[in-house]
Amino acid sequence: MHLGLGAFARAHTAVFTENAMLASGDFSWGIVGVTQRSDTVARQLAPQDGLFTVAERGAGAAPLRVVSSIVEAISGRDRPDTVVDRIAAAATRVVTLTVTEKGYRIDPQTGSLNTADEQVQADLAGNPPQTAIGQIARGIQQRSRTGAGPLTVLSCDNLPANGKLTGTLVRAFAAALPAAESGPLLAWLDANVTFPSTMVDRMVPATTDGDLDAVEHELGLRDEAAVVAEPFMQWVIEDTFAAGRPAWEEAGALFSTDVAAWEAAKLRLLNASHSMLAYLGLATGKTTIADAVGENAFRLACSRMMAGDALPVIELPDGLDGETYCANVLERFANPALGHTTAKVGSDGSQKIGLRLLTTIRANLDAGREPLWAALAVAAWMHHVASTPTADLNDPLAAELHAALPDTRTAATVVPALLGFGGIFDPELAAHRGFADLLLHWYRIIDTQGLDGLRNEINHG
Question: What is the pLDDT of residue 414?
Fold first, then answer.
């Protein structure tokens, strides 16, 4: 079962699962995919019996392939009871999910489930669950009552300790139910459900009409569910499964006892640089990530952020060379065939910058170091927020962020206003004078001097 059947899940989890079946000869597995916010993918896959095409783009790309590991596609928005039934089915042994950071309904103040969220409250009240956490919790509850057996819930989103976090959120949902429900559910959950952590990596841009036309030209058929991806893909998994799993290691997945180190490397090197390029690109008219990294100054800023700010405060996993990893990240970003847009990568920034950038910034400040380059990325995000109309700002906190901003928007007014936004910046970081000065410095350059000013400051400042 997979919750969040977007392009990434199809180009990553579905491909790994099919490859595992082909390599191991165990064809007893299949994926029931669930779309969360939109029914588009479910409607696209239904007439195709779940089949879809993966088109790799870039050096070393494999030929076009049709993937067959999805056996059913369900609109979670329209059929939430069916989602619960599928999770509760005895045949379901693993639930994977890619619902993005905001899909977890996390309270930024507590790090646990936001039980004040209207949709979470509706799920708790017994309505057909619409949130991923509600669907998982209600599915587990039904399993506990029918004797369907143990279950593994495997988060594949870019969140630190994503398995532990998902378990915390599901338990918080269960604990918020009436006592007659919560006690038995929590006891069964603790005895029968595991939440391994994972790290996933593959660049999968939004599919365009041009991509669909290219696939049709090569395939000879129109595939509205086709996805485009880079050749590279990686999956690191903690091997604490409750009830069996596909032989993903046969497909190249790495099972590790140190997933946290792999997660930290990806979040604070690759994802942090992705965000930096997105916001610098948006500030200077760069449409794609490849365009942004093609700007020598921006590539240099990314290199310096990874080498100077991030690597000194990250404990890398065994077998990962930091310098080589960083160089490979920039080469992957430069793949012009992907067309990964700065707007897409820069969406939902309020949910991302804490994990990708602020952790590194805090660690540097605590060590007495100046996080010059990570501060540039945060300043570029602030400029994006302040310069984008509320209706156009693709962020779940767009209205709240703009409500915190003054009418006159300069470095001197925007930086302190956004630093005071408690849902993103903790009070200690917001009050750090050195960090604020770095933000003011970079914001002024972005706002008043643009690309030429950034080039000069990055190259010669």
Answer: 98
Q: Is pLDDT of 239 > 90?
A: yes
CA 411 – CA 36 distance, rounded (Å): 38
The string of DSSP letters for 159-195 reads -TTHHHHHHHHHHHHHHTS-HHHHHHHHHHHHHHEE-
Percent pLDDT > 90 in the chain is: 98
- DSSP class of residue 372? H
User: What are the DSSP calls for 71-119, one per residue?
Assistant: EEEEETTT-HHHHHHHHHSTT--EEEE--TGGGG-B-TTTSSB-TTSHH
Give the CB-side neighbour count of residue 343, counting CA atoms within 13 A: 8
The answer to whether residues 49 and 192 belong to one domain is: yes
Q: Are residues 217 and 317 located together in one domain of the fold?
A: no
State pLDDT tens for residues 41-64. 999 999 999 999 999 999 999 999
State how far the Cα of 134 lies from the Cα of 136, in Å rounded to an integer.
Answer: 5
Residue 114 pLDDT > 90: yes
* C-alpha span between 224 and 337 (Å, rounded): 19
Same domain, 242 and 263: no
Domain range spanning residue 342?
Answer: 259-460
109 pLDDT exceeds 90? no
In total, how many domains does the chain have?
2
Report the largest interatomic distance among the alpha carbons of the chain, rounded to a whole angstrom.
67
315 plus 179 within the same structural domain: no
Task: For residue 294, give the CATH number of its domain.
Answer: 1.10.1040.10
In the chain, % of residues over pLDDT 70: 100
Mean pLDDT, rounded, for 251-261:
96
Residues 156 and 277 in one domain: no
- Cα separation, 410 vs 397, whole angstroms: 21
Between CA 46 and CA 449 the distance in angstroms is: 51
Q: Which residues contact 222 (CB under 8 A, 6 or more apart)?
A: 212, 216
Helix (H) or strand (E) holding 16: helix 13-24
**Distance between CA 309 and CA 352 in Å, rounded?**
18
**pLDDT tens string 295-336:** 999 999 999 999 999 999 999 999 899 999 999 999 999 999
DSSP 288: B
Nearest alpha-carbon partner for 347 in 413, 441, 275, 291 = 275
Both structure tokens of 343: 């707007």
Considering the entire predicted model, what is its pTM?
A: 0.92
Q: Is the pLDDT of residue 37 over 90?
A: no
